[in-house]
């Protein structure tokens, strides 16, 4: 009996001298480590508060940051800037919008806001946004300008850097291509090569104050 009391007292003293180790062992189940998958297969983690949902490309490229206005020209074209009026076209010179702000919305997707010239006219400071024309018939779709709504899937575009300061622009599985006689259309490539890329030119900060 005396021996048993001595052993029990020694164990209590040993645990008291290493309280942190004893408590740590009791707080987690055997074989469980922080950050390991739960039984459902999901890894438990705490997201970083305020982390932006933007792509790495947007973070690295100021022209894709949503903070710069750009003009867009077709590399393989005449050098005329794209213009958004009733339809996105090349060098239409119809008084449409020629200044664009590609704005990241997460998941490598962008809304592309369009503005008129900075000439003091308040209407030019209210943005329109690119949108796939839902009235078109496949396989070739055009792009028009509408009130911006980044939650609308047909206002979300991909912009992919192709090297040497050029970009491919797409929507879902289609790419913006130039077809003789039909202008700029969104088209599935299939087995065809990408024959249309674009160059962006920085035209200053995106600091418009839209009309209330």
Description:
The protein contains three helices and 13 strands. By secondary structure, the chain is α+β, with helices and mostly antiparallel strands. The strands form three sheets. Strands 1, 7, 9, 10, 11, 12 and 13 form a seven-stranded antiparallel sheet that branches. A four-stranded antiparallel sheet has the order 4-5-6-8, with no helix packed on it. The N and C termini lie far apart (88 Å). The N terminus is likely disordered.
Task: Give a brief outline of the structure.
The protein is of the alpha+beta class. It has helices spanning 2-17, 19-27, 56-60, and strands at 68-74, 82-84, 88-90, 99-106, 109-115, 128-132, 140-141, 143-146, 158-163, 166-171, 174-179, 183-188, 198-205.
Which labels suit this protein?
alpha+beta; 3 helices; four-stranded antiparallel sheet; disordered N terminus; 212 residues; 14% helix; seven-stranded antiparallel sheet; single chain; 33% strand
Sequence-ordered SSE layout with sheet pairings:
Layout: H1 2-17, H2 19-27, H3 56-60, E1 68-74, E2 82-84, E3 88-90, E4 99-106, E5 109-115, E6 128-132, E7 140-141, E8 143-146, E9 158-163, E10 166-171, E11 174-179, E12 183-188, E13 198-205
Antiparallel strand pairs: 1-13, 2-3, 4-5, 5-6, 6-8, 7-12, 9-10, 10-11, 10-13, 11-12
